[in-house]
Amino acid sequence: MTDHNTPQLTLYLAAPRGFCAGVDRAIRIVEKAIERFGAPVFVRHEIVHNRYVVESLKNKGAVFVEELDEIPDATRPVIFSAHGVAKSVPEEARARKMFSIDATCPLVTKVHREAESHHGAAREVILIGHEGHPEVIGTMGQLPEGAVQLVETVEDAHRLEPRNREKLAYITQTTLSVDDTRSIVAELKRRFPALVEPRKEDICYATTNRQEAIKAIAARCDAMIVMGAPNSSNSRRLVEVASREGCALSWLIERAQDIPFDEFENVKTLGLSAGASAPEVLVDEAIAAVKARYETRIEIVTTAEENISFGLPRELRPEG
Prior knowledge:
Shape: flat
Oligomer: single chain
Number of helices: 10
CATH architecture of the largest domain: 3-Layer(aba) Sandwich
CATH superfamily of the largest domain: 4-hydroxy-3-methylbut-2-enyl diphosphate reductase, catalytic domain
């Protein structure tokens, strides 16, 4: 029986949302390594940018470090995060005689190989991305210092002064805003007509799909919640997309208890999504929190179907 004192709310659930194939693979790598080699297994940097995931893996026997010299036992496996690492990191691991397993997302590895290919062809490489992000650090670290120029904004693209305007190529971080990147690329192409593009889009399918799903619901929503961590690039881009598409009340939320329900006074329609490193359990928590306060009608809005998966590295494949 409906309680007429309970406010009503329509919840638009974006699909696709949450884990992408690269994140799922990275988490499986840590779990499989613990299963095969026992605990502890060391992980350099957060395996993916989500506190819930990191804490759950810690409980299973993963130990997270920022640098290899923090690992007290060089005989234990060390896993490199999904964001990828500079070439100097596996080189250091080999020098220390460590057993390392690379959990870099294959789509990030693709960008690394592109950077190497352009450098081998004597092209100066422009990387569109966010300074300081682990993926950007890892990608720039594939080439000698000074071989990559980082561009973050259209203004950066306008000011860029390459060594040779005729020998240029660009690559991108995989988790950028599709629209922002399009504007930056347009400015680069305007200034440098000989610019060589990626053969296939560098921004990954999951980033693109999640942004398109947000666009499909943002105009209908009085507010939008994106489940994800504050250091998750793709999650932050989803909030920006929602705001740009007209949903002014848009928040990045780590856990359901962080939802600012006191700001929901005039909210009748709510959008809900999750970044590519946020597990579905966090979405379920958010839905339960909404249902506890509202008579909720849920509408799933699907803009793409995803069936991509990546295999485990050879070190963790079944033996025999």
